[in-house]
Amino acid sequence: xxxxxxxxxxxxxxxxxxxxxxxxxxxxxxxxxxxxxxxxxxxxxxxxxxxxxxxxxxxxxxxxxxxxxxxxxxxxxxxxxxxxxxxxxxxxxxxxxxxxxxxxxxxxxxxxxxxxxxxxxxxxxxxxxxxxxxxxxxxxxxxxxxxxxxxxxxxxxxxxxxxxxxxxxxxxxxxxxxxxxxxxxxxxxxxxxxxxxxxxxxxxxxxxxxxxxxxxxxxxxxxxxxxxxxxxxxxxxxxxxxxxxxxxxxxxxxxxxxxxxxxxxxxxxxxxxxxxxxxxxxxxxxxxxxxxxxxxxxxxxxxxxxxxxxxxxxxxxxxxx
Length: 321
Ligand SMILES: [Mn+2]
What we know:
The protein is α/β, with parallel strands linked by helices. The chain folds into two domains: 5-198, inorganic pyrophosphatase (n-terminal core) (Alpha-Beta Complex), CATH 3.90.1640; 217-320, Diaminopimelate Epimerase, Chain A, domain 1, CATH 3.10.310. The chain has helices at 5-21, 36-43, 62-75, 107-116, 125-134, 141-147, 152-167, 173-183, 193-216, 234-244, 272-283, 303-320; strands at residues 50-53, 78-82, 98-101, 224-228, 249-256, 259-266, 286-289, 293-299. A five-stranded mixed sheet has the order 4-5-6-8-7, with helices on both faces. Strand 5 and strand 6 form a beta hairpin. Helix 4 runs antiparallel to helix 5 (125-134). The longest helix has 24 residues, at 193-216. Bound molecules: manganese (II) ion. Manganese (II) ion (MN) is lined by residues 6, 54, 83, 106-107, 135. Manganese (II) ion binds at residues 6, 54, 83, 106-107, 135.
């Protein structure tokens, strides 16, 4: 699953069901769309039951993913639950195994409903709410109904701690694995001192990040503002970049191993998922996500052309809408 709170909460619900109710031995892995195929090959083998949640399918590696899932489904069970828009021209239901794909709502909501149908207790709706809030998908019919069964203010308080703490620990997978197991017991984020401490630190960093971006935003393009190597989360940096750059799209990136890893945020009406998938098909990069919050990985040599094309595509998108 994905390492954000929607991914961690999806994982916690699955862990609760498989490890604590069904008493299976469960290993938890975090991955990302471009790494899914390799991670499946490396960490699973035939005979394993594979559960995947909150990972988008990546155009570039779709054939490899199809192949490995077909193999795994032949020897064990495969469940794939996701809410990211599907790659152009692919119906996720064509994948082997049990596929639940709906862009209606968070992965946590879909995962909760899936296991609730198999007997997961109502009490676990709170864990799913933390995930939904983390993905800003807290305005669905189900979320509104279930929030009323809890004290809404307390749910947001706990979700805030979890979301901030996970944001502060992006690639610390051992910590995240511990939190998956912790939440699998329906324990409160505020009762874990490490989560609380990390959340407080993250709050301060976010404020520093906001002020840094206000000073460092680059407005080289017409519809696109940029920042490079922001001192903090790329996703949040992209939001502030959009705001302080006064442009419809904000983009924040950092370079690792000659690849620019980026996060993008757009205003309503600009579908970044579609733009990035089209653009990446053209120049061979990987990109996509949600309509207003997406990511991409682009080789450094292609960055200039990527920015130029993206700016052009946004301008066409703005004009046509
Ligand atoms: Mn998600």
